[in-house]
Amino acid sequence: MGATSDQVIYTYDVGENLHPDIRSVGLTELSAEDEIAATRRARGDQIRLAFELAKQSLREVNGKPVKLADGSADKAWNSLGARLRNLVLQAFTEIHTPEEGVIDTFRASRKVESR
Fold first, then answer.
1. Residue 113 half-sphere exposure toward CB, CA atoms < 13 A
2. What is the pTM assigned to this prediction?
3. What pLDDT does residue 7 have?
4. How many C-beta neighbours within 10 Å does residue 65 have?
5. Mean pLDDT over residues 84-110, rounded?
6. Helices (H), 1-115
7. pLDDT at 2 over 80
8. How many CA atoms lie within 13 A of 13 on its CB side?
9. Which residues contact 33 (CB under 8 A, 6 or more apart)?
10. Residue pair 42/49 in contact by the 8 Å Cβ criterion
11. Euclidean distance between the first and final Cα of the chain, in Å?
12. How far is Cα 114 from Cα 16, in angstroms, rounded to an integer?
């Protein structure tokens, strides 16, 4: 679990109008293990799950690594403020949602067989 040296980091710039101290946030795609860890922390609460998944994806703030294991990701998450947390949720969704053409191709590939 956690960032590895070969993970892709998606970095988003943060304007001064969103946060006085944070200039960037970096997120990564989650592994299956990361998704399960976030789901466990959500304890069945679907709204909390969205936040836990986004927090699990958060890997950098101002170019510095943050990790759940050492508490730095929780500290960073809490310091973001409501508006920036909302944008991180949107960034998480953007990173983890296939483009429309990919979705259409996947759906069109469906085959039905009786076995």
1. 4
2. 0.85
3. 86
4. 15
5. 94
6. 32-42, 46-57, 72-79, 82-96, 100-108
7. no
8. 3
9. 1
10. yes
11. 38
12. 59
**How far does Cα 35 stand from its chain's mean position?**
10
Contacting residues for 31 by C-beta, under 8 A, at least 6 apart: 1
Binned at pLDDT 50, 70 and 90, residue 78 comes out as very high
Residue type, 45: D
Asked whether the beta carbons of 89 and 48 are under 8 A apart, the reply is: no
Burial string for 39-51 (b: 16+ CB within 10 Å, else e) reads eebbeeeeeebeb
The tokens describing 108, both together, are: 């069109």
Check residue 4 and give its pLDDT: 46
Interval 15-66: pLDDT, tens: 999 999 999 999 999 999 999 999 999 999 999 999 999 999 999 999 999 9
Per DSSP, 98 falls in state: -
Please provide residue 49's backbone torsions phi and psi, each rounded to the nearest 5 degrees: -60, -45
